[in-house]
Amino acid sequence: MVRKGALIFLAILMATVLSMGALAQQVTTINFWTQTLDSRAAWQPMAEVIAEFEKANPDIKVKVEHIPFAQFDSKLIVAAEAGSPPDISDINWMNAKPWAQAGYLEPLDDYIAQSDVVSREMYYEAALVGEHDGQLYTLPQGTGTYMMFYNKDLFEKHGVAIPQDWNELVEAIRKLYNPPHYYGLVRGFGDALYVFDDFVNFVVQNDGYITDEAVTRARTDEPAFVDAFTFYVELVTKHNAAPPGYMEVASAQAHTLFAQEKAAMLVSGPWARGMLATENPDLNWGIFRIPGPEPGKYGAVVGGWQFGIWKGSKNKEAAWRFLEFISRPENAAKWASQLNLPWVKEARNYPPFSTDSFLGEFAEMLAYTRFHMPASPKIPEIAEAIHIELQMALLGMKTPKQATDALTQRINQILSN
After folding, report:
1. Of 86, 99, 119, 150, which sits most exposed with the smallest number of CB within 10 A?
2. What is the pLDDT of residues 216-255, one digit of tens each?
3. What is the DSSP-derived secondary structure letter of residue 374?
């Protein structure tokens, strides 16, 4: 009897061990590639979300590969072409639609239809840039947008109220013009992509567009675009908005000039807070929405990142569960907390966006935003064309109308190639 009992016990023990082994074998590892380096402070809350996901989903492990931004897109494409992409990755918003068209990404609508968490409606409409042929291929991750930073002391000294429209912005710049000590608004024209962001804020406010939705023709000769272009140029040429040497000023220098109180206003995003705190912790500054052509008509551009599941993934269901978890409002808020603003509307009701008024104001601004233009691999060339023609107008070599006519020709040539 003892021997028989021992055999039964051994059989049960072996079955248990085999069962545990089988369970261990059922753990799925998904590969997630990100351009957020683990050395950056922004990664800490993201890592916390991943740890929480793994705890809630013990059958899935997330293997993270951090890739520098400069190499990120090329490594993804090489991996996709070789048939070995990650399961899920960050997707630059500019690549969302082109990569969907190229067949690199998995359509997500069937997953969304079965989800109790994810819906198109949970995001700000501007965020859904990864759509192709009626299917959504990416989910919004995080973004940045722009507001006007202002020097409270200079505003008070000159009796300047917060401007509510373009006319009041011009009047504020006029009052704050005090060379060589400071100027009304610092602009940086030394960097094409910086100018692209800064300038297109005003195009968005004025309901202008760079191209049509299909990115087949320019719309830069239309009145809404031309008027915004003219206003932007005349802020400098007519109203003396920028300090001397503005043509050589890039983004970092513009922030430094504001921090040094050489300018009373600066268009920037939430990332500027840390820069200003480093360069001048005693600066008394605030923010307000960039005034539009008329009171209450706000607008600004957005950029940022999306999430995509790759067509070549062998673990699509597990990757979706991870993506679904990140998309919960409380997790979306944490994921974006150190780097971006969350595209999930309800995320602004969670810390830090619910407790930090500065971030909260930026999050609320997302309701008035859109991308510069539809996603396209031609964007860098178009940004450079805008930069060139703005410089021509600012230097007086062309009128704004001549410059926008030339810009229209340039963009149509870019799109025809």
Report:
1. 119
2. 999 999 999 999 999 999 999 999 888 888 788 877 888 9
3. S
Bond preceding residue 352 cis, omega within 30 of 0: yes
* Of 117, 173, 196, residue with least CA distance to 385: 196
The model carries a pTM of: 0.83
Selection from 206, 210, 229, 226 nearest residue 218 by Cα: 210
Cross-strand bridge partners of residue 140: 306
Helical residues (DSSP H) of 355-399, grouped into ranges: 357-365, 379-394
In the structure, what pLDDT confidence band is assigned to residue 22 with cuts at 50, 70 and 90? very low
pLDDT in tens, 262-314: 999 999 999 899 889 999 999 999 999 999 999 999 999 998 899 999 999 99
Asked whether the beta carbons of 372 and 387 are under 8 A apart, the reply is no
Which own/partner contact pairs does 334-338 have at CB distance under 8 Å and 24+ positions apart? 334/45, 334/48, 334/49, 335/45, 335/46, 335/49, 335/141, 335/142, 336/141, 336/142, 337/45, 338/41, 338/42, 338/44, 338/45
Rg (CA), the chain: 25
Question: Could you confirm whether domain 29-144+303-371 is CATH 1.10.287.40?
Answer: no
pLDDT digits (tens, 9 = 90+) for 345-394: 999 999 999 999 999 999 999 999 999 998 888 998 999 999 999 999 99
Q: What CATH number labels 147-302+378-416?
A: 3.40.190.10
Is 147-302+378-416 in the same CATH topology as 29-144+303-371?
yes
Q: Residue ranges per domain, the chain?
A: 29-144+303-371, 147-302+378-416
